[in-house]
Write a structure and sequence with these properties.
The protein contains 13 helices and 19 strands. With 400 residues, it is an alpha/beta fold.
Length: 400
Amino acid sequence: MAIRSICNADVAGKRLLVRADLNVPIQEGKVTDTTRIDRFAEGMKPLLAKGARLVILTHMGRPNGVMNPALSVDKLRPVLSDALGAPVRFSDVSSGVSAEIHANALQNGEVLLCENLRFNRGEESNDPALAQQFSQLGDIYVNDAFSCAHRAHASTEAITHLMPAFAGPLMMEELGALKSALEDPQRPSVAIVGGAKVSSKIAVLKNLVGQVDHLIVGGGMANTFLFADGAQVGKSLHEADQIDTIRDIARLAKAVGCTIHLPSDVVVAREFKAGADAELVPANTCPVDAMILDAGPGAVDAFSQVLVSSRTILWNGPLGAFEMPPFDVATVALARKAAELTRAGKCVSVAGGGDTVAALNAAGVTGDFTYVSSAGGAFLEWLEGRALPGVAALMQDEKV
């Protein structure tokens, strides 16, 4: 089974029904971060140059099948037009006769943006009847929205049974990066996993220890690992009810030869606020009235040595409360180390998840990583080793 790339297809004169993820931040009616639109447009411009006719389906927010003017995607048109270098027409519906008329009127190299597809009640229930309506808008279906691939929706799953289905440039890029980081990595490989709770990433941790050589644990998750080892964690965020889970993960790691790395020293404070007085203590001796808010310099040095010896780095989650100085130091330092190694050609680095992207942006190194995924839920489910419906739906017999 293989996934066909639209980049290799004859698209001249064809209506490409493209599922995009242009769910970007909006303030006062204007786009405040164009990253997703810019990345999408870079992949679409060569197709337009070949004579493709683009019909774009995207969502914004969670309207739950109800028309909501505040969530109209019409406001994306100026930025999308600039990014594509072409005028963008608009259909105020994304299904039905009116949308078909707009799609059929397109000429080679022209673009149509359809209204928020989640205004349709059947979108999130994967309604085949709605998918049938979508299919009338194009000749070829293209999924270019990996970030939506973890949901079986009408525009990501049902539609693939009704028309030729291909992956878009961004989808292919993402799948290639993820395969290189986890499914077929250069060895040794290391995963850095942080965040607040072990309970939210049990499946991720259990899958990763079977896939990588080293697992670095940070954030509130590290506190729970330390607690399970008998450490004093004071008032730190931790999950006392996850001790058995931690022990299961440790057993799995030992059985497959994956080494788990925890902070050797930590930064603690009595208050969780910017500029709070902080002190450095051994990781197992947090004062009873304090909380662990970051990994210490000794931990960063040790983690950095793991990175130096690795050929593949996979990152999901910060090492501490990075959004609040001075508890961003460990995350920023390790991110810069990973970036340095990547620039030197010593490793492949792939990162993903909302907090992770924000942390890399704060460290100023996002552009230095081999690949940074903006997908949230889809990235996590991939880390868990789960099949993503929107990806599985693109699988075709290689003879096709």
